[in-house]
Amino acid sequence: MVEVKVDLDKDVVEKLKKQAEWCDLPLEAVCKLILSEYTRNRGGYLFYGSAPGNRKIILIQWPYITGQVILTQEELKALGGK
Q: Which of 30, 34, 23 is nearest to 66 (CA)?
């Protein structure tokens, strides 16, 4: 695995923390699950192009289907869950 550090806005972190609490998982585990499912499910793409005023635009297309992750007790423990 590769470790990646990401700086997120406070409002984003608060929403992710709520999800983490609901799942009874650490924040980092929830972020890992979200990014993993985004990249593994069909339909997730980034489009990059030019925007008026010499700016750039990035369009984020989310996958078409709901991702599902079923964790064994060992996998859950490895993610820091209970």
A: 34
Residue 20 has a CB neighbour count (10 Å cut-off) of: 20
CA nearest neighbour of 28 among 13, 10, 41: 13
- Give 25-75 pLDDT, tens digit per residue: 999 999 999 999 888 888 888 899 999 999 999 999 888 777 778 888 888
Beta bridge partners, 57, equal: 49
- Spatial CA neighbour of 39 closest among 76, 4, 77, 15: 4
Which positions ≥6 away from 29 have C-beta within 8 Å? 20, 23, 79, 80, 81
Tokens of 44: 């997730």
Q: pTM surpassing 0.85?
A: no
Q: What are phi and psi of 55, to 5 degrees?
A: -110, 170
